[in-house]
Specification:
Blueprint: H1 4-18, H2 22-34, E1 38-47, H3 48-65, H4 73-94, E2 98-108, E3 111-122, E4 125-136
Antiparallel strand pairs: 1-2, 2-3, 3-4
Helix pairs in contact: 3-4
């Protein structure tokens, strides 16, 4: 795998997190599937601090459900760790506020990326933030 693999997978995760509808998500998933990239996306909303573990859990469950990762400790840990890292990147803007948006996950070969795209704030006074993280996992599929 060339060094561009991590960039390609990160781009796919970001684009999945940016989809605005289930239909768009499904269409993009098919495009990536044809390129050998497995993807998943899941919506989330809630108060940031109390939501961190729920967001991580949702990302892992979605990745397993969509076949992005295997049901193994190392694959689950890679997605959980990348999700936590992506959330930590938006934490300074999010503490004490509500978040709402989407988590995108992508994998090709040994590259896994998780992107979070959230509106942050109260009422209509939203900030927007993106967090992105990458992990390397064993291909053993």
């Amino acid at each position: 795998m060339t060094s561009s693999g991590s960039k390609k997978v990160a781009s796919a995760a970001i684009k999945m997190a940016l989809t605005e509808s289930r239909e768009e998500e499904k269409d993009l998933k098919k495009v990536y599937q044809d390129q050998g990239i497995r993807t998943a996306a899941v919506d989330y909303g809630g108060e940031f601090l109390s939501s961190v573990s729920k967001v991580i859990e949702r990302a892992v469950v979605a990745a397993k459900r969509e076949g992005v990762i295997k049901d193994t400790h190392s694959d689950e840990g890679a997605v959980a760790g990348a999700t936590h890292e992506a959330l930590s990147q938006i934490m300074p803007k999010s503490i004490g506020l509500n978040i709402g948006g989407k988590i995108g996950i992508a994998r090709q070969h040994d590259h896994v990326s998780v992107a979070v795209f959230f509106g942050i704030g109260m009422i209509h006074l939203d900030e927007v933030a993106v967090g992105l993280a990458h992990r390397a996992v064993s291909e053993g599929r």
